[in-house]
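Why do we care about 3D structure at all? Because function follows from shape, and shape follows, mostly, from sequence. That is the central idea of this module. The next example makes it concrete: a single protein chain, its amino acid sequence, and then its structure expressed as tokens.
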Amino acid sequence: MANKVKINVTVNGTQYEREVEPRLLLSDFIRKDLGLTGTHVGCEHGLCGACTILMNGQAVRSCTHFAVMADGADIKTVESLGTMDNLHPIQEAFMEKHALQCGFCTPGFLMTAVEYLEGNPNPTDEEAREAIDGNFCRCTGYENIVEAVKLAAKKMADH
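And the structure:
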């Protein structure tokens, strides 16, 4: 059995110190150790985007990182965005534009879009489509997701 490694990580504003197995995936650490199940795991190979989180402000696939790689990092998961009573503009936009169906892929789309919109506050259709290009959805056909990203840009600018 491998020796455990101590990590310190801030997730959604809360600091955690944990001992983890060196090969524990960051997605598993977030879901199982911290109980934040909004980060979904689909392909486990970094291809579908369902596990996307923000690590030090950058969108990353948590299933392609080990938890030890996050030592010292500031992580934001979908749970950091908003609450039922106070939705984040991207959550409002997804709801208003009916940009989800089963919802499995939604957390990854939300986190990808939030990171993108922070640097690109007025995307065209093509830019919004390109921003979400690495996230897969089996239900929606993407059109409503593109519309939601554009609406979220407007909402975020007004906030």
